[in-house]
Amino acid sequence: xxxxxxxxxxxxxxxxxxxxxxxxxxxxxxxxxxxxxxxxxxxxxxxxxxxxxxxxxxxxxxxxxxxxxxxxxxxxxxxxxxxxxxxxxxxxxxxxxxxxxxxxxxxxxxxxxxxxxxxxxxxxxxxxxxxxxxxxxxxxxxxxxxxxxxxxxxxxxxxxxxxxxxxxxxxxxxxxxxxxxxxxxxxxxxxxxxxxxxxxxxxxxxxxxxxxxxxxxxxxxxxxxxxxxxxxxxxxxxxxxxxxxxxxxxxxxxxxxxxxxxxxxxxxxxxxxxxxxxxxxxxxxxxxxxxxxxxxxxxxxxxxxxxxxxxxxxxxxxxxxxxxxxxxxxxxxxxxxxxxxxxxxxxxxxxxxxxxxxxxxxxxxxxxxxxxxxxxxxxxxxxxxxxxxxxxxxxxxxxxxxxxxxxxxxxxxxxxxxxxxxxx
Length: 424
Known about the structure:
Strand content: 15-25%
Number of domains: 3
CATH superfamily of the largest domain: F-actin capping protein, beta subunit
Distance between the termini: 49 Å
Radius of gyration: 36 Å
Strand order of the largest sheet: 10-11-12-13-14
């Protein structure tokens, strides 16, 4: 037992462990007592006592090789090279270079004398992350927050970081991308409507165009509100010919939103050809729909986002329609259940007058969104009977159905009585 304990608990590897006969194995203390990360009770030389284990913080260990660098350390030192033979055949003293090359973080340095790996890219236990790594982790958490919950996540991330500068850098990077990805809608300062944060209306980092009111709003991404409002310049707006198609589609789409999404908003942007003054050229529009329902007091939030790109081809007299619908939901009462699903749609219609095109395009959008919503509802109805049932084992290990009609046949007490003749 003492030999095994000496071999297992030694700080050295098993290949380097000194195997002693039983008569030469010392009774006290074992090499484990010299480990800096463990505090054990003293053992007497007459009879070893039970070791008392008490954890304490692990200090930075001294590397086994005197020339090796600790893991993650990149000081301007280098392991001493082995001695080289001279022309007379004698070994010369090792030469230490004046300026040593720093080891690459992605490469491992092998000490030729002690054969230990140093300069590993992996961080040792207790080593703190750099500010850049902390910022990247914080950005990931903020960007992947469920719909309408980024401020709750930001509060926890801020407390975990404990560094205001790192948090502000992460928030400045994550909040704009989150707002554009989730099509967050903000109320305009004059309460004339709602502004959708989207790349189609982005003029610069903080200024976004509202095509319905022909205004440009300055947005505070972190606070998620509009701070300033100004009239849009002429070069920021489409031509009168394009505006006819855009405004007609905006009117029809708003009617559909009022019917389908009580708290939804929509906007129509010109994506290409905004300077066209008449028929004979191609142009493009983008219809954005954003609806969110937030009920944190009931532990649930959800969002519906759809983007429809419209290509008006004057040559073929057709309008190509491509859409992407994204649905997200989060239910977190005594658990954490999230839904994140999307679907791509494609359709077309005939290029007509602005009013007729608007009605036709809106009907196509209504058809695809209603069809997708029906498919989601149908999948929910079959969730318990089909999906969850398929997760269970079809048959038990015996490969036979359980005899519910004769459960006494599998009585364990009856089988034991037969085998052991109990009760006779």
